[in-house]
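(Structure overview)
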Amino acid sequence: METPISPENKHIEDYLDFYCNLSTAPKFAVLIKGKWGSGKTWFIEEYRKKLKEKAKSDKTGKKSLYVSLYGMTDCSEIQDWFFQQLYPLLASKPVVVASQVMKAVAKLGVKFDDKLTWNILIPDIKDLPIKFNDSKFNLLVFDDLERCNIPIESLLGYINLFVNSEEFKVVIIGNEEEVIKKENKYQRFKEKLIGQTLEVSPDLHAVLKTFIKNKNVKTPKVKQIFDDNIELIKKLYEQSKCKNLRTLNKIILDFQRIFDNLPNKAKDHPDIIKDIIEMLTIFSIEIYQGNLEPSDIGKLINKLEKEAYDFAKIKNQQSQGSDKQEEIQEIKNKLHYRNIFIKYDNIINNNYDSNYKFKTLFPSIDWWENFFDKGIVKDSSLEETISDSIYFQDEKTPNWQKLLYFYFYSDEDFEKILNSLALDYKERKYEEIYEVKTATILFFYFSNLKLYNKSKSEILKESKDYINYLKHSNKLDWKLYNDETHEARSIFSEVLSYPEYKEFNDYLKESQEQIKISKFISESEKLLKIMEDNIDEFCKIININITNGFLNEKYYNYPILKYADAEKFVSIISKTPNDKLRELFNSLQLRYLDSNQTHIHSWGMELIEEIYFLYQIQDLLLKLIDQREGKLSGHLLELAKKEYLDKSVNKIKEIKNT
């Protein structure tokens, strides 16, 4: 055989050798049973290869014929299968040819004893082709017993015909547990037909080797990767107690897809490959077993956070000697996701954050959900996040980034990196808000664990000083960094609930808002100067629609007009030529409404704060229109106000009121 049979199944191979080498048929069949996916079919295919190889070198070697009973409804279909193997050239013709040659049938009564008689349609073996009676084909294999739709008494009666022959030995393959559930007559007939029952143990190593040789696995490196990680996969299957090996083939094919789309530097990194195989195997097993929905993968961090809290309550109750054991057990049973992953080493560890693995995954937990739920492999996040992962850290990696994976470090390395981060912080090395916030979160987190020698109040003071430094040196970005979803799913999410961190975060937002207002006031003054000098340029800057997508619209989705001087705005309008008034007011309306004036478009929703500026414009325009009563410009201004400005204000008011 190409792949050796495992020691767990060697006894089956030895027995089949004995059975096939009997000089005359023993007049009983051998049943090889096992659960779905346990490798029964793979085993018998490997054994048949052995017979075929022996037949080549030994003239007395025995060949075999194989038939899958899956979905069959009549014994004549079995004959067709045998015919196709015996006469491969004729088998390419319509099945009816096979039927004419093979289906010499008669209604016969097969009697086992005085009490048990089967009346079935069976072929007369004497009329079957001579080649079928050739002793080289003395082993007949009937697979997928539990998936056959032929009545069990008819099927086993048909097989019994071959068992009673002087020439044939018969092996039946099936999931006996399922047959018993499906056919209550099975046990009565089994004892008359089957003389030996053998159970296959899942042979992951051998089956994996076979799947790797699949033509669909085209990359030699992928074949080598699975060779190198066989023990890891075997361990995960053992931990999951999964006996179904069919998932292995899909795991291999899925990995091929993932591997093809990985950044090149990831393909040569053994730790990345190992982690991907680990998560791919675990998710595949749990989804296949019905324990995990693909659409729930992205929610695992939040769900495990909640279950970790419930688990902590259980431990607390037990430590206090609670006598409510039934209640405690009921809570344990509800820890669905914890119960799924606790059995795997390195996924949930009671000694530290239960979500650590999922929070530091590459690819990310969201990527895995998209992969299993939607089949999406190509994702920019593969390239974007790889450099920030633990796998590619070096001397250029920022200290805050290194500490995101602090569990991997020794005591000495951790202390060294943390001290370096504290020095970076003191020297104001970081200017990006994301970096400053992350470093601050790390200090709070490690302080709480007593791994950092400063108190939370000291960290709060230093963090405010840092914000003040950035603000006064004009380095504080006014755009709010608001990635609270990411922060809440990080391993350090508990910090978000610390009062000191909340005070720091509020202080940061207030500081940014101050800079934002100051900047917008200054920018609004520049904007009005542009309006005064070049009305066309002004329209482009405030409105994405006015130029049909030409992206010169710097403030099309920022409420810059909230900070503009309304009197100055109307003063400029008063000087605008009549032929430009329609263009100006139309542009202003398109800033908020769609071209049909029916609803506020998506980016217009971000500009609702400008409503108070528009109120002022309405009032000031009324005064200007009164002043120009009897003049063409007054008439045009009144039309523009009603047609464009008033409609915009009314739509915004509707939204604001709801």
Notes: The first helix runs from residue 10 to 20.
